UniProtKB/TrEMBL annotation:
Keywords: Membrane, Transmembrane, Transmembrane helix, Transport
PANTHER family from the UniProt entry: OS09G0467300 PROTEIN-RELATED, PURINE PERMEASE 2
Location relative to the cell: Membrane
Molecular functions (GO terms): purine nucleobase transmembrane transporter activity; purine nucleoside transmembrane transporter activity
One Pfam assignment: PUNUT
Protein's UniProt keywords contain Transmembrane: yes
Organism: Crotalaria pallida
Signal peptide: none
Protein name: Uncharacterized protein
């Protein structure tokens, strides 16, 4: 009885996590390009700064990791039984290389900030005002990190394939929002992209439905020999 209640709670929490992850991924994949576009439309011209903002908000990821780790420790009666996370040598090497590349990116950013009055000059001439300029920069960093968190959550709850298919749905959403907020023309190319994205999204779910329907009789025959 207790195990059934815990299993039901786990399914409920997984569904909530999946819903939150989907919302975060949609906001990031659709809002991230729009915020970056806003930066360039109103006077921003630093491509390297816009690229840096896509990784600058990485400390935000530490918060959910900390919460998950604390919950894992609290759910175990003896904290010594909590296994330490380990990493194999190849993964460690590749992670270290990626970390060095990110460190180089941050160094180049700091070098540019120290020798070029980039931010203060752009902030003064930004079309929407100096305050909005900084809001755009901070918002861009946060929105891009929401995509990483949402993507990890969706992979944990479903699969990487579903996450990729779901992410492709953001393409038509971004185009529609660009037409609404930036008054862009809805050209033929955008219409074709919209149809192909929706077609792929529907086809994936139809294929999953057919596969699940096919596996149900097999499961029944196994459980009832």
């Amino acid at each position: 009885m207790e195990e059934g209640r815990e299993a039901k709670q786990d399914r409920t929490m997984k569904r909530i996590l999946l819903m939150i992850s989907c919302i975060m991924l949609i906001i990031s994949t659709s809002g991230g390009p729009l915020v970056s576009r806003l930066y360039f439309l109103h006077g921003g011209n630093r491509i390297w700064l816009s690229s840096f903002l896509q990784v600058a908000g990485f400390p935000i990821i530490l918060l959910p990791l900390f919460v998950i780790r604390r919950r894992q420790i609290n759910t175990v009666a003896d904290s010594l039984k909590v296994k330490m996370a380990t990493m194999k040598l190849p993964l460690f090497v590749f992670s270290a290389i990626i970390g060095l590349i990110i460190a180089l990116d941050c160094y180049l950013y700091s070098y540019g900030s120290a020798h070029l009055p980039v931010i203060s000059r752009e902030a003064k001439h930004f079309g929407l005002g100096k305050t909005t300029y900084y809001v755009v920069l901070v918002g861009s960093a946060i929105i891009w990190q929401m995509g990483f968190i949402g993507g990890m959550g969706m992979i944990f709850c479903t699969s990487s394939l579903f996450t990729g298919v779901f992410g492709s749905l953001s393409v038509p959403i971004t185009e529609i929002l660009a037409v609404i907020f930036y008054k862009e023309k809805f050209q033929v190319e955008k219409g074709v992209s919209l149809v192909l994205s929706i077609w792929g999204f529907v086809s994936f779910f139809y294929g999953e439905y057919k596969q699940t329907k096919k596996e149900l009789p097999q499961n029944d025959s196994v459980s009832n020999p």
